[in-house]
């Protein structure tokens, strides 16, 4: 995985180019986090990208119906397995079998057109 130098002494790990995430859409990438390699959901709005572990709090399944393909409706992300509905903005489940639980957020930054994981989430 590439390392991107930032201003100061901290470093962030690049996960993909911003252009690889469709604007207004989502994709999945594999990334090395403190707990090991994980699939991440990346959700993009313009130059802002939100990240969550691709693990549904209901039964621990991936949320995509095919690798990197997610059910999105308005501002929601819908788990493809049993239909739990999550806010894209904060990962809170607002309907379905795990209502009130949340996706696990992964802090991201966009640096020079590259989506990077915040160093706090790294090993
Ligand atoms: S695994 Fe996501 S709703 Fe059941």
Structure, explained:
With 123 residues, the protein is mostly beta strands. The protein has strands spanning 3-5, 11-17, 26-33, 36-45, 48-53, 71-73, 76-78, 85-87, 93-95, 108-111, 114-117. The protein has one domain: 3-layer Sandwich (Rieske Iron-sulfur Protein). It contains no helices and eleven strands. A hairpin with a 2-residue loop joins β4 and β5 (48-53). The protein starts with a strand and ends in a 6-residue tail after the last strand. The chain binds FE2/S2 (inorganic) cluster (FES).
Jot down its keywords.
4-stranded antiparallel β-sheet; iron-sulfur; binds FE2/S2 (inorganic) cluster; iron; Rieske Iron-sulfur Protein; metal ion binding; 123 residues; mainly beta; Rieske_2Fe-2S_sf; Rieske_2Fe-2S
Distance between the termini: 13 Å
Provide the CATH top-level class. Answer: Mainly Beta
**Radius of gyration from CA coordinates:** 14 Å
Number of helices: 0
Average predicted confidence as pLDDT: 91
Domain module tally: 1
Structural class: mainly beta
Low-confidence stretches: 1-9
Order of helices and strands: EEEEEEEEEEE
CATH superfamily: Rieske [2Fe-2S] iron-sulphur domain
Largest sheet geometry: 4 strands, antiparallel
**CATH architecture title:** 3-layer Sandwich
Helical content stands at under 10%
Number of DSSP E strands: 11
Sequence of strands across the biggest β-sheet: 1-2-11-10
Q: Beta-sheet strand percentage?
A: 35-45%
- 3D shape: globular
Under CATH, the topology can be stated as: Rieske Iron-sulfur Protein
List of distinct ligands in this structure: FE2/S2 (inorganic) cluster
